[in-house]
Every structure is written in structure tokens, then in C-alpha cells.
Design goal:
It is a single chain. With 315 residues, the chain is an alpha/beta fold. It has 11 helices and 12 strands. Strands 3, 4, 5, 6, 7, 8, 9, 10, 11 and 12 form a 10-stranded mixed sheet that branches. The radius of gyration is 25 Å and the shape is globular.
């Protein structure tokens, strides 16, 4: 098996043409055909239906296509991970951070560290919460920043990972203000009305927090989803334009609240949830590698936690 055979096969599945894929792969058509035949010989079954035009995959070929995409994607991710380690160097701390924290909390937090700790060389890897956690478990970063709520804990076993709590974040409902400074949309909606709802994509961590808010609401919020994305910044932009109501992290809307572009869409304390902002690392005794800069930062954060109640340690 050679990975280039899988890459050829993926190209053929996309173009449905031997000649076109040969051009894209920069080889002759006969050589390209031999590679596909070699892959079929390795698999022990026909992968391409050569009796049809355009070229179609057999059922076995469709199965292998899905697997090939996953295999090549994993190999590329691993290669990028290795290259990032080589490029970053021992003095660069690599952070995996969910998009919403990357836009709001992280820049201010790092600036504070520069003043209290030291000049910090850092590399930010912005992902969704699930992928950020996976990045830590796969050794792709030194530290992970993430939200935490008791109803949605990250699957990080405490015997392998330790954490510090850096602060808290509230997720609440916001909407564009009308001419009188009142929200264009409110929750819950008046009887018989539906609120145009700007929602997080299915599976997003903040989306699961919104589901918890709606589930615990004493009366139905009557939300009607009209738009979705997995990024809080995308929802905020739509809310500013008046498209609907969005549940957003408080830190992400501070400027918009001060400027009057957004206002709370529910009374304070209602229809909201408070989450912790946590930082995680592999425990040194089981860590695959520990950068001195990351270890020094963790020591500083741990000492700060002992000195101030704002930071809380735990597992």
C-alpha cells in the first residue's frame, strides 16, 4: 500500500475521469490506471465500475473512499502537528483554544500575563471545543483553554490531566437595540409569537449550553432558528444587524453593549448560564513532552491560584 494510491483514488472519485485525474496528479494516464489497479489488487476487490461513464465507484469503492478521506486527513493532520512542534521551538507555548475564547478572553489574558509573568511567546490554535480537547490528548499543543460546565464536562481523565480555573463566563441572550434602546427581540416571546433565533451549529459546546438554558426555562422561550454557525463571532455579527436573538458570551459583547449596538434580551439572571474558563495540561509524570516555557507558566498560574481566589485548582 502506498498513500499516493489513496490520493489517486480520492481524485478519481471527485473527477470521475481517469484522464482528468491523471492530469491533476501530474502523471500519464496509463501510470494513473496502473496505480488504481494496484490499489484494487491490494483491496482484493474492484473499486471502480469501468462499464459506466462517467466513471463510478463500486459499493466497495464508496466504502474505501470514505475511509481514504479519513486516513489521508489524519496523516496530514499528524504531519502538520509534527511540523508545528519543529517550528515552534522550546520557548513557544502552544495553546489550543475554542474560537470564542480565542477572540475574547485569550488576547486580554496574554496581555495580563506579559505584565505579571513575563514576555510570552505563544502560538494559538483556534478550534471548536471538541477538537481543541482532542488536540491536547493527541499531543498537538502544550495547554488547552476551554469552557467548563458541570453538565458538559470535557472527557479528560483527571489521572492524566490537571487543570486551573482562570475565571468565569456568562452566556446570555442579546439582540439589537431599537430606537429607544430596547431589544428588538426578547425571551420568552409573547404568547403566539416566535423569536427569530441565531443558533449554534449542532454539536457546538455553546450550543449545548443554550439547550440547557432552554430546557431549564420555566416557560417555553419560543425560539425559531433562522440561522446557525459554530462561531459566536458569526452569531454576534448577525445579531448586530438585527437578524435575530443570539446567546453570546458576555466578554464577547462588552464593546457592543457600551456602544448600544446590542442589549440584553432577558432580565439579568434569567435565561443564562455561567461557565468556568479552564486551562488544562498533561500531568508532568505522564506527559509525553513538557516545554520549559509551558512548565514555568503553569507554575506561575498555580502560585497565583494559591494566592488569589480568582484562580481555583482542581482535577
Amino acid at each position: 500500500m502506498e498513500t499516493k494510491w489513496l490520493e489517486d483514488f480520492i481524485s478519481l472519485a471527485e473527477t470521475r475521469s481517469f484522464s482528468r485525474s491523471a492530469q491533476l496528479r501530474h502523471i500519464t494516464q496509463p501510470a494513473f490506471s496502473r496505480r488504481i489497479q494496484s490499489l484494487e489488487a491490494w483491496a482484493g476487490i474492484d473499486l471502480v465500475d469501468r462499464s459506466s461513464y462517467p466513471t463510478c465507484l463500486t459499493p466497495a469503492g464508496e466504502t474505501l473512499h470514505a475511509q481514504a478521506l479519513e486516513i489521508i486527513g489524519s496523516l496530514q493532520a499528524t504531519r502538520n502537528m509534527m511540523r508545528s512542534h519543529a517550528a515552534a521551538g522550546a520557548d513557544v507555548v502552544e495553546f489550543a483554544v475554542p474560537h470564542s475564547l480565542a477572540f475574547t478572553f485569550f488576547p486580554h489574558w496574554v496581555m495580563d500575563l506579559r505584565q505579571r509573568f513575563a514576555a510570552l511567546k505563544s502560538r494559538l490554535i483556534a478550534l471548536n471545543v471538541h477538537d481543541a480537547a482532542m488536540h491536547l490528548t493527541e499531543g498537538g499543543c502544550d495547554l488547552l483553554l476551554a469552557y467548563h460546565h458541570a453538565s458538559q464536562p470535557l472527557p479528560l481523565p483527571p489521572e492524566r490531566y490537571e487543570m486551573l480555573t482562570l475565571g468565569v463566563e456568562t452566556l446570555a441572550a442579546y439582540a439589537k437595540a431599537d430606537a429607544n434602546g430596547e431589544p428588538l427581540f426578547r425571551v420568552p416571546a409573547p404568547p403566539g409569537h416566535r423569536v427569530p433565533f441565531l443558533s449554534y451549529a449542532s454539536g457546538a459546546y455553546l450550543g449545548r449550553m443554550v439547550e440547557a438554558i432552554t430546557r431549564l426555562a420555566p416557560t417555553p422561550l419560543n425560539l425559531e432558528s433562522i440561522y446557525e454557525t459554530d462561531m459566536a463571532e458569526g452569531l454576534k455579527a448577525m445579531a448586530i444587524e438585527g437578524h435575530g436573538l443570539a446567546f453570546l458570551p458576555t466578554n464577547s459583547v462588552a464593546r457592543e453593549l457600551n456602544a448600544g449596538r446590542l442589549v440584553r434580551a432577558a432580565p439579568p439572571g434569567l435565561h443564562e448560564v455561567t461557565m468556568e474558563i479552564r486551562i488544562y495540561r498533561e500531568r508532568p509524570e505522564v506527559a509525553r513532552h513538557t516545554k520549559p516555557a509551558a512548565a514555568a507558566l503553569w507554575t506561575f498560574l498555580s502560585e497565583s491560584a494559591a494566592a488569589a481566589p480568582v484562580l481555583r485548582t482542581g482535577t
